[in-house]
Automatic annotation (TrEMBL):
GO annotations of cellular component type: membrane
Listed name of the protein: Short-chain dehydrogenase
The keyword GTP-binding appears for this protein: no
UniProt similarity note: Belongs to the short-chain dehydrogenases/reductases (SDR) family.
Listed Pfam families: adh_short
Organism of this sequence: Thorsellia anophelis DSM 18579
Record InterPro entries: NAD(P)-bd_dom_sf, Sc_DH/Rdtase_CS, SDR_fam
Keyword Oxidoreductase included in the entry's annotation: yes
Any one GO molecular function term: oxidoreductase activity
UniProt keywords, alphabetically: Oxidoreductase
Length: 253
C-alpha cells in the first residue's frame, strides 16, 4: 500500500466523538477525503467544520445508526451516489456501560451488543465485496484490550469486544490475502466512555495520541493489529497466556 492518504477516501463510522473524531481530524490533515458518520448529526457538522480541506478534499456528512443494518445500507447508497469509490471503511462505533453481573441492565446489554458486535457484521456484509474489487482497500475495526480476557464489571462490553476480535480474526483468515483487514485494540483513552470508570486507568492517553498510532498502523500493509499504548497493551497480552488460576487471582476484586 502506498504511504499516503492523499487521493484515498475513508468512511469513518463513529466519527462524532472520542477516538473516531480525533482520527477523522488526523486523516484529513494527511490529505484523505472523508465520509463521516454517526447518529449525532450536529456533532458531525461541527467536526466537518474542523476538517482540513487544504488538498481540495470534499468531505461528506452522512448520519446513520451503526447498530441498524437498514441505516448502514441507506448510508452506503447515499455515499455511492456521490462518490465513485471508497478505499477504506473504519468502524469506530462503540458503546460502554460498566455493570455488575448481578445487576445487568438488559436494555444496555442489547445496545452494546448491537453496536459493538452486530454493527461490524452488518458493515462487513455490506462492504466486503466492494472492497475486494478495489486495489489497496482496507476494512478496519476498533475493538479493545478489554476483549483480550474477562475483567470485573467489563461485561457485556468486554464480551462484545472479545466477539469482535474473534470475528475480525476470522475475516482475516478468509480474506487477508485479498484485502487489508486491520484490528484496533486501544488501551485506556481519555473519552466520554472512560469518563464512566471509577478506577485508576494506567497509561491513559489522549484521543489525539490514539489517532496518531492508528494512522501509523493504517500505513503498514502487513500489520494486522494496531494496539496502544504499548506499555499497557503488551502487559495485557502477557495476561492472555497465564493459566486461569493465576489470572483469576490477579484480577479478582
Amino acid at each position: 500500500m502506498k504511504n499516503s492518504m492523499i487521493d484515498r477516501t475513508y468512511w469513518i463510522i463513529g466519527a462524532s466523538s472520542g477516538i473516531g473524531r480525533a482520527l477523522s481530524i488526523e486523516l484529513a490533515k494527511k490529505g484523505a477525503t472523508l465520509v463521516i458518520s454517526s447518529r449525532d448529526e450536529n456533532l458531525l457538522i461541527s467536526l466537518h467544520e474542523q476538517l482540513d480541506k487544504s488538498n481540495g478534499q470534499t468531505h461528506l456528512v452522512i448520519p446513520c445508526d451503526a447498530s441498524a443494518f437498514d441505516s448502514l445500507q441507506e448510508a452506503k447508497s447515499i455515499i455511492y451516489n456521490r462518490l465513485d469509490k471508497l478505499d477504506c471503511v473504519v468502524y469506530m462505533s462503540g458503546i460502554y456501560h460498566p455493570m455488575d453481573t448481578a445487576q445487568l441492565e438488559l436494555s444496555w446489554v442489547k445496545s452494546i451488543v448491537e453496536t459493538n458486535l452486530l454493527g461490524p457484521m452488518y458493515i462487513t456484509q455490506l462492504m466486503i465485496n466492494d472492497l475486494l474489487n478495489i486495489p489497496n482497500s482496507q476494512l478496519v475495526f476498533c475493538a479493545s484490550v478489554a476483549g483480550y480476557r474477562g475483567l470485573p464489571n467489563a461485561q457485556p462490553y468486554g464480551a462484545s469486544k472479545a466477539g469482535l476480535i474473534n470475528f475480525v480474526q476470522s475475516i482475516h483468515a478468509e480474506y487477508g490475502r485479498k484485502l487489508d483487514i486491520k484490528l484496533i485494540n486501544p488501551g485506556f483513552v481519555q473519552t466520554r466512555l472512560t469518563d464512566k470508570n471509577q478506577f485508576s486507568m494506567p497509561f491513559i492517553i489522549a484521543p489525539e495520541q490514539a489517532a496518531t498510532a492508528i494512522v501509523s498502523g493504517l500505513l503498514k500493509h502487513n500489520q494486522f493489529e494496531i494496539h496502544f499504548p504499548k506499555r499497557f497493551t503488551l502487559l495485557m497480552k502477557c495476561f492472555t497466556s497465564l493459566p486461569y488460576w493465576l489470572y483469576h487471582r490477579l484480577v479478582r476484586r
